[in-house]
Amino acid sequence: GDFTNALKNVNIALRKNPHTPSFVILKANLYFAAGRVQDAFDWLASASSLQKKPDVGLFYVQHLIRDQQETLALTQIETLLKKWPEHEQLRFLAGITNIELKNFERAEYHLKHLLNSENYQDQANYYLAVNAERKQNYTEAIELYKATDGNFYTVSRKKLVSLYLAQNNAADAIRLLTQERISHPHQASFLYQLQAQVLKQTHQITQAI
Questions:
Q1: pLDDT at residue 27, as a whole number
Q2: What is the 3-state secondary structure (H, E, C) of the chain?
Q3: Residue 207: which pLDDT band, with cuts at 50, 70 and 90?
Q4: What is the pTM of this model?
Q5: How far is CA 90 from each of CA 69, 78, 87, 170, 174, rounded to the nearest angstrom?
């Protein structure tokens, strides 16, 4: 059928260009589409080790993570990082996968590499904060959430408020939100909503309305 023909065509292309990442990935996608997940993983495992670029390996580990095979994914990521130590996306995946597996020191090691990265600085701060929170190091988590900006600004401020409220510290949460309105005036409406939630949760309903 269609799958057999498509696979035949990809195999012909691969015979001519065995190391072309797009062909390797196309073959894996054909297996995935046909529900032959293990065949896809076996193919990616053998093909990624022969690659001169990290594209196939990256595709492989992303699918392993999606399939909740974090331990195998991490082994692959560590192997790829030996070849491409400057690859920021692999470094980031190493960080968050280690958090999932509760390897907090290793997670910190990888994420700290990204603190000066143009593309990953905010993610690195955010997940270092998540890492500190999982270690129950709340003081460090608070400082790291405060340092987080960009696309992770709103989610990190929600996390900060949750941490303060968990410590029965509504006053610090309100103080933070007041300071944030000065430093991030464009976020004022979000910050007012968050403040209303704090007041509501701490039963100061009249001030929240």
A1: 96
A2: CHHHHHHHHHHHHHHHCCCCHHHHHHHHHHHHHCCCHHHHHHHHHHHHCCCCCCHHHHHHHHHHHHCCCHHHHHHHHHHHHHHCCCCHHHHHHHHHHHHHCCCHHHHHHHHHCCCCCCCCHHHHHHHHHHHHHHCCCHHHHHHHHHHCCHHHHHHHHHHHHHHHHHCCCHHHHHHHHHHHHHHCHHHHHHHHHHHHHHHHHCCCHHHHC
A3: low
A4: 0.89
A5: 16, 9, 6, 38, 38
The residue assigned the tokens 């297996």 is: 31
Amino acid at 103: N
Does the structure show a pLDDT above 80 at 1?
no
